[in-house]
Design a protein that fits this description.
The complex is a heterodimer of chains A (264) and B (364). Chain A contains seven helices and 15 strands. Chain A has two domains: 143 residues, Response regulator (Rossmann fold), CATH 3.40.50.2300; 101 residues, OB fold (Dihydrolipoamide Acetyltransferase, E2P) (Beta Barrel), CATH 2.40.50. In chain A, helix 2 runs parallel beside helix 3 and helix 3 runs antiparallel to helix 6. Helices cover 30% and strands 29% of the residues of chain A. Chain A is an alpha/beta fold and 264 residues long. The two termini of chain A are 40 Å apart. Chain B folds into two domains: 165 residues, no CATH class; 185 residues, 2-Layer Sandwich (Heat Shock Protein 90). Chain B contains nine helices and seven strands; from the N terminus they run ααααααβαββαββαββ. In chain B, the strands form two sheets. In chain B, strands 2-4-5-7-6 form a five-stranded mixed beta sheet, with helices on one face. Chain B has a two-stranded antiparallel ribbon with strand order 1-3. Chain B is rod-shaped and about 115 Å long. The chains are: A alpha/beta (264), B alpha+beta (364). Chains A and B meet through helix 1 of A and helix 5 and helix 7 of B.
Amino acid sequence: MNTTVRALIAEDEAILAQTLAQSLQRLWPELEIVGTAPNGYAAVEQALALRPDILFLDIKMPGKTGMEAAHELTDEWPAHLPFPQIVFVTAYDEYAVDAFEHAAVDYVLKPVSDQRLARTVERLQARLAKPQSAGSELERVLDQLRALVPAQAANAERLSIIRAAVGNQIRMIPIEDVVYFEATDKYVNVVTAEAESLIRTSLRDLIAQLDPAQFWQVHRSLVVNNRAIELAHRDESGKITLKLRGRKENLPVSRVFAHLFRQM
Amino acid sequence: MNTFSPDPPGKIPLPRRLFNDFLALSVVSFVCAAIVTWVIRAGSPYWMNVVFSYCIGGMIMVFIQLGRWLFWRERRPTFWPFMANILAGIVLGYSSGVFLARTVLGMPMEAMRGNFSAEAAGIWVMTFLVGVGATWFFWNRQRVAQLEAQAASERARAEAVEKQALQAQLQLLQTQIEPHMLFNTLANLQGLIALDPPRAQHMLDQLIQYLRATLKASRAGSTTLGGEFTLLEAYLGLMAVRMGSRLQYRLDLPDALRDLPMPPMLLQPLIENAIKHGLEPKVDGGRIDVTARRDGERLSVTVADTGLGMDEHGIARHSEPGTGVGLANIRERLAALHGADGNLTLTANTPSGVIATLTLPSAP
């Protein structure tokens, strides 16, 4: 390593951020901690501004979760720069740990033990020592994030009609007429070729009731009926946008979901 | 052996049952034949009496089972009707058994009529006694088995009830000491030991106080308002160390209310909700005010936070799957303890957040 390795810590509890910084300093004296971010927004902002080599992301943070921050960074990260190594930090949470093991992501548990952290440090050093292309780490993180997207239950109850309240009326929308669903602050916007209606649910709950063969999540706030997609356009930076049948607006595709639009 | 017992057949496989019956029949037959030969001295040879005993006993079994099948099928017979069935079985079984034995032995039939000797009367009496005796024996054995089964099921039910109660207590305890909270607190403690030992000491004291109070509350049926506030103070103290300037709090409990009885575990979930759904997910944090007041015969405790709050449907803006259970639990317990007199209301705080108000009846 010819240049100093730089790390950013995103952790809402100040004592824990400081403790992690100290442990890292002890185990890896050459590592430079460039900052600590106290919430999810700051994590994304500071990561983009400081361009660290390593990013420690607490899972449970105000604003955005560590997972959401990582997801957003994969879309916002400049293409010519190597994507940071991500290490998730979490307190006891068996579900998250199972998912992490399954997705082969780096994670440490709070309270952080020095032995465990030392192993993580070794792994990070080994990976950073290897010369890598700008995109390889991004691809690796994308694969991990894809593995962490909750799988749709195969035998879940499927919605066939969306009932959306419009004033005093309930609009009945056959599921095949929906072009896409868009999550807003508290609602999901149901968009058909002719109209838009709001329903009060979360995108996550909705996805569980949709047929995964027809409805694809393409972005953290967008689920698209794949039969309504006319074409997917890839620009020079690799970003994909969707052109839809019957709608004028184009939809962005997150890198995490870009694999859905590779050619056959 | 089930032949004489009123137990419905079917529990033991049929071949096994037939074999058991045959075995019982054989023992009884050999004994009866011996009695007929050497006690009653009927004059016929032992082997012949064995054949008679087998035939009579077998036919009695057949008739009793037949009667049982005709009148009760799978149902459990009652005592006196079943005794009548046995009597009929004995009479019919005896006559047809003698007939069968004579056929088997090639003896003339007319000999059995008009030959009402003392020996024949003796055999009659013996058959009757053996039949009733055997039935009596098996009926009682059946009763004992039935009582034992009843006691066993009673025991099983008592165990199940006890297990449920224990499980409920454990669940209560688990909702109190959430693993996520505990491990985060320990992580902070671990950090503070290196960074700031006096603060670590203080935090450890608070953790001990919190754990002790929680364990005590989860076992006790009732505690005092003062005890509950001590628990809240320890909990908020721990959270304040973790959240730093993002959490401010104030507890207001007039001294006069300190000793009022209070069901445990009603207030803490409200504080936890305020932190979990209100302040922890809010970037800038905020404050919690807990206030206890008495108005005549009603005690009210309000928990006001300035967190993210609820939407217009009364659902936390920041919610995770499985939430809403805590409030439902509180309402259920309130209803169980105080009926319509205890209630919990949630209203919006201004400019943001939630005010939870718990109202209980309280003797002045």
